[in-house]
Records
---
Amino acid sequence: ASTLLASGTITIRAEKVGKDTTLDRIVQLVEAAEKSQSRISTLGERFGKAYLIFAFIGAGALYLITRDLNLVLAVVLVVCADDVAVAVPLAYMGAIGSAAKHGVVIKGAAYLEVLGRAKTFVFDKTGTLTEGKLAVSKVFAMPGASEREVVALSASASLGSNHPLSKAIIAHAHTLGAELVQPTSMKGVSGKGIIAELGGLRITVGREAFLASEGIMVPPEVSDAAKRFAEGGESVTFFAKNDAAFGVIALSDRIRPEAKAALAELRALGVTRLVMLTGDHAGVAESVARELGFDEWHGGLLPEGKIKALEGYLAQGEAVMVGDGVNDAAALTAATIGIAMGAIGYDTAIESADIVLMRDDLSALPKVIAIARKTRRVSMEDFLIWGVTNVLGLALVFIGVIGPAGAAAYNFISDFFPLINSARTRFISDSPK
């Protein structure tokens, strides 16, 4: 960020620097999550390590029993697993290319493999399930204050803030033709609200708990209005002058048009648990979750709260996290697989994620999962082909049809069968069926 000062002077006071900043706290969460995340290995890697040991032990045992070096050499040449070692990665590389056609970047074959079997998907709400474009929908004002005044003073106090909520209030004030005044001082508290000095008034805009922590009284009428708005699925922010709350602003965020169909496709693909985590009010969370058919949801979460909730699901097995913003970066890193909405997502989220949806389109998610599951089936077919050709080759060796030279030729020819099978993933269909 930068500021160009055309004339005059400017005084800047840094209230939080270094490890005290919100960004640094996010970075610390990401680093902690990286340390706790175990490395994912592919089925091919696990098979290769185990099979190599088994093959050498088996060859040694066969030699001790038969003392026939030609037989041992022929057996080793037949059962050499280089075809599978190449075919399985080839299948996943082809699938990664297929996913890229749909605007999905996958950072490794292991992530695609896990994605193909994952049953629990955890979603952030704002910017992921919704468009992330808030707009003021309702305003409540106490007697002695007007709706226009509530919006105008809230917008003035929010000048200079880049929070989506602040931008929405400022935009609504401009729509009303309200005159905004630059505050003499303004302090933003991440995830909580704003305090500003404006024309001799102390204006506070933010969550109810934030107002309470500042010693501001919230009348029952204001709390009741906020509750009504939240139950209707809207985000709410409180407005206070000096030591009392005088109003509530309700904001709505449109659910992505493709979200419901995308989640239904996930169900069809075998996903058994859909979870939503959000920093929004519990009432907003419940409204969106019920509309989209989520199994579980948690509202009012700060970044640390998302990590804690996610850890509960990770303790029960693999969990995929889908998010977009900087607040999701640590959760994306902590999850078994992190998927970031790339186009409007922050760089930190994209860097922390294992898979990136380059377009803000959730319909790409079931497509890439369908590709992952079909690729997993292709890799299983590779193992089956390898097993059948090995059994046939061993039979030819033990009945004396082929020796070491014949086994080498047989191995060379049979290598092509799983490779040809794996090449199909480059043109694999993304249909869930």
Note: DSSP finds 17 helices and 13 strands in the chain.
---
Amino acid sequence: MSSFDERERGEEAKFAHDASLRFKAEARRNKHLAHWASAEMGVTEADAIANYVAEVIAADMTEAGPADVVRKIKADFDAKNVEIDERAIEAKIAQFDIQARGEVLSEA
């Protein structure tokens, strides 16, 4: 095997590893976000929070980027008359993104 082939396999493995870490960090970010949103909406029941976490993670699969999550949480806030705007949700996403990346990297 040539050194080029070895380097190519190494790069492919690194790409796959990085993609896995990104996915885990985004899922963790969405979990933190769902817990925060649940608290803001006054949801305290563990099963309801767990279901909401799954809904937020699933919402993030709709399109690239966090816009789909912002729309989902904003719609949920509006339905519960929670006065938090999109900018505040985006700020929480940024905060939890940093936190989640740190957590995932420390576990890797």
Note: The mean pLDDT is 90.
